[in-house]
Amino acid sequence: MNMTSGPSPLEAQTKKLFRHIRTGSYKTRAQYMGKCLNFARFCHNTYKVSNIRNINTDHLAAYIVTRQKNDIAGTTICDDLSAIRFLMDHVSNPRYQILTNVEIEEQYDLLLGNEPLNPGNRAWAINEYETFIQNCKNIGAYNPIDVSVLCISMGLRITEAVASTRAQAEYALRTREYQVKHEAKNGRWRKVPLSPEAEQMFLRRLPEVPRGGHLFIKPDQKTHLAVNEHEHFLRCIRGKIISEEGIRTRIIKKSAKTFTNEITWHGLRYSYAQNKMKQLLLNGFSYDAARQIVSQDLGHNRLSVVDVYIGKKGCYLDNIL
Fold first, then answer.
1. For 92-141, where are the alpha helices, taking DSSP H only?
2. Quick one: pLDDT band at residue 263, thresholds 50, 70, 90?
3. DSSP string over 37-72
4. What is the distance between the alpha carbons of residues 225 and 205, in angstroms, rounded to a whole number?
5. CA distance 255 to 56
6. Average pLDDT over residues 304-319
């Protein structure tokens, strides 16, 4: 790693922020600042980031990979992440939302400990998805409907779905496979079987999309801003689509306390993984073979990550096993 002479602008901003933070003990703040300065130095040297507001999860994931390559213990890396989140919580108007550790494991195919973190089931109930579609139709919001088709019927992440281009849609219609490219969170290209629902959506939308254009991103609009619009939209209507069935699905019990996972776009990937597993098992595939196919569709190398989506030993699959 190339090192700069003297503190970088990012390090200076980090020190300035910590001078004004009063939460936590002095010892904790000092430890956190040391960890955050290491991260700031990494971001500046590796990505030339000079404004702390521009730090995003890609930088965090790359830092995790670098620390792991240097044989840093998983507990230390988790402490690093806690410190970085502490810092980012005090940044005014950050441009990006930092994903949780669970989301980082899922989306970047990383392992922070010996076993994947398990946040509980986050799948949508069928009636919640139906209510979501109806609410979108009632207000004429058709982009979120079409984006959701890619998420729930092909397992795409929200960024992958929103970034869909005319070229990708045309390729999928020709080959029956959808090619996820650079928009993949972990940078790993993959091909996903084209679903009938996505096929109908592409055929309907393509006449409206110019050559070289995107299906859901306006001309000159940044991808992350289009994704933010969809995230904001779901947050606004979330309360209208939650059902008792969905709450029972997403409930978690930890240390005698009960929590319920929120409805998120990523939850549609849970729905996809569980539906695909059920379909494959009913079609005669072995559990391990079905798990391997779902892993490939989701874009993960490790089968253990699939357990996050379907539960250990498939416990989220309605006892189909």
1. 101-108, 126-138
2. very high
3. HHHHHHHHHHH----GGG--HHHHHHHHHHHHHTT-
4. 21
5. 32
6. 85
- Spell 12-45 as b/e; 16+ CB within 10 A means b: ebbeebbeeeeeeeeeebeebbebbbbbbbbbbe
Percent of the chain scored above 90 by pLDDT?
74
The SS3 of residue 177 is strand
Are the beta carbons of 147 and 229 closer than 8 angstroms? no
Tens of pLDDT, residues 113-140 = 766 666 789 999 999 999 999 999 999 9
What are the phi and psi torsion angles at 258 (to 5°)?
A: -115, 130
- Judge whether 249 and 215 are in contact, CB under 8 Å: no
**Cβ pair 297, 286 in contact under 8 A:** no
Q: Which residue has the higher pLDDT, 48 or 106?
A: 48
- Would you mind telling me the total number of residues written for the chain in this entry? 321
Gap between the Cα atoms of 172 and 191, Å rounded: 9
Q: Does 56 have pLDDT greater than 90? A: yes
